[in-house]
What does this fold into?
Amino acid sequence: MKYLRYIILLALFIGMVLWLNKHNDEDIAKSEKLLHNGIKFSGEVINTKVSNNHAFGIIYLKLKSTNTTKFIKSAPKAEFPYRINGDKAELYTTIGDGLAPGDSISVISDSVRAIFYQLKSRQKYESFIEVIKDPFNIEFINDNNFIKVPNR
It folds into this structure.
């Protein structure tokens, strides 16, 4: 009887964690569905700008190839991980150590991945792209991007 209170609290805690995890999985699935839009592009890194939030930043690209000349979409509480306008693009993601101007990046939105090719070290690595929902990161994007969303 003495430990019954702790057992009930533990069961409530486990139930709450499972409930939150289920809702988080649903949210991730909705976000990934938004990224299945057929967008493909690759380009050369012109510059980067890193925020103070866990290496999140903006990678500015000069496009080499793309299947669309313009992609500028946004939502009030979310940002797509990229914008394209003409021969320029911006990728909003975590910026790996060693990424420098001249390196190449390919994005295939349907596979929810970005592939980075570093010239100096001759290394290739992949990263996931995701819809940006962190308010700090959205504010950083709005303050530091060159490709602006119309009517914002």
